[in-house]
């Protein structure tokens, strides 16, 4: 058995993303906005996608002012027919997408028996169907170009444990995203497309503001008495996107500040 230590610098942990092109969905607020800025700061050119284009335009200006490269891509991930076009627009502007962050997501915030079909469809289409179709589109292009890629899917600790309170379908979709991460990692390992996930606990964002407005601030119940800051996900994101993490695939990392049980 040969160990090619000489091929690898010590330590082998660079997260320099120069030359990579990232597509981040749900980049108009919250975690996605931070993910886009973090990837740009690490050297990637970033296509930022969401429905609120004014927010994306501001983010692009901010990234460019910091010396980065970015482009805004309007996309409603529920509209599967629009997904290929959005990836094409990102590619036309920045080149082949090599990093996909499936971050766009919505809560259900409703008891199962009170959910209208439109809400059921919207939660499933945003949190699961959209990411699945988008992953397939990005993978198709990487495979055709014979290029390696990285995908990071944003699940939730709520996909692993549920204690009631009107987030049942959200939990189901986030559990499915974790499973999608595992099976697509297996499916595309041979193409050197790594698929991993992050399952955050409760982090400050617009979605969390909405939850606090509905059920109150529950951070006092957490062992550390706080919500996470999106910046505390930077290191996990970069770890999963780093060229040196080439052997890490099919993993979902829980980052919850010790808020929940196991
Ligand atoms: N914050 C937390 O504590 C927490 C915990 C666990 C998991 N998460 C997950 O983290 C991800 C980001 O959530 P967040 O907390 O940052 O919430 P957020 O601030 O509400 O951001 C959600 C983002 O998703 C986008 N989005 C929603 N529907 C979309 C659609 N149909 N098409 C395209 N983009 C859409 C929104 O952009 P537009 O409205 O402009 O389209 C927005 O940029 C979600 O998947 C969420 O489930 C969050």
Task: Give a brief description.
It contains seven helices and seven strands.
Walkthrough of the structure:
Belongs to the short-chain dehydrogenases/reductases (SDR) family. This is SDR family oxidoreductase. With 262 residues, this protein is of the alpha/beta class. The chain has a single domain (17-255), classed as Rossmann fold (3-Layer(aba) Sandwich). It contains 7 helices and 7 strands; from the N terminus they run βαβαβαβαβαβααβ. It has helices at 30-41, 53-65, 80-94, 117-145, 168-188, 206-215, 234-241, and strands at 21-25, 45-50, 70-74, 99-102, 149-154, 193-200, 252-255. Strands 3-2-1-4-5-6-7 form a 7-stranded parallel β-sheet, with helices on both faces. Helix 4 (117-145) links the parallel strand 4 and strand 5. Helix 3 (80-94) runs parallel beside helix 4 and helix 4 (117-145) packs parallel to helix 5. The radius of gyration is 18 Å and the shape is globular. The model has no long low-confidence stretch (mean pLDDT 97). The structure holds NADP nicotinamide-adenine-dinucleotide phosphate. NADP nicotinamide-adenine-dinucleotide phosphate is lined by residues 25-32, 50-52, 55, 75-78, 103-106, 126, 154, 156, 200, 202-203, 205-208. NADP nicotinamide-adenine-dinucleotide phosphate binds at residues 25-32, 50-52, 55, 75-78, 103-106, 126, 154, 156, 200, 202-203, 205-208.
């Amino acid at each position: 058995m040969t160990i090619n230590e000489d091929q690898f610098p010590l330590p082998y942990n660079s997260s320099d993303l120069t030359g990579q092109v990232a597509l981040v969905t749900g980049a108009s607020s919250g975690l996605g906005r931070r993910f886009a800025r973090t990837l740009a700061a690490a050297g990637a050119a970033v296509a930022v996608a969401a429905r609120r284009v004014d927010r994306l335009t501001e983010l692009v200006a901010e990234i460019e002012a910091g010396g980065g490269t970015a482009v805004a891509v309007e996309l409603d991930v529920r509209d599967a027919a629009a997904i290929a076009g959005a990836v094409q627009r990102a590619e036309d502007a920045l080149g082949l997408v090599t990093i996909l962050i499936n971050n766009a997501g919505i809560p259900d915030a409703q008891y199962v028996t009170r959910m209208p079909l439109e809400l059921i469809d919207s939660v499933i289409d945003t949190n699961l169907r959209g990411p699945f179709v988008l992953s397939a589109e990005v993978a198709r292009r990487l495979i055709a170009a014979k290029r390696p890629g990285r995908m990071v899917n944003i699940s939730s600790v709520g996909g692993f444990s549920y204690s009631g309170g009107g987030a049942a379908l959200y939990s189901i979709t986030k559990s499915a995203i974790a499973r999608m991460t595992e099976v697509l990692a297996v499916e595309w390992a041979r193409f050197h497309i790594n698929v991993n996930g992050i399952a955050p606990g409760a982090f400050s964002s617009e979605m969390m503001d909405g939850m606090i407005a509905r059920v109150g601030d529950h951070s006092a119940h957490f062992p550390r008495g706080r919500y996470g800051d999106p910046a505390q996900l930077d290191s996990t994101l970069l770890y999963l996107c780093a060229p040196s993490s080439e052997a890490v695939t099919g993993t979902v990392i829980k980052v919850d500040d010790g808020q929940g049980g196991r």
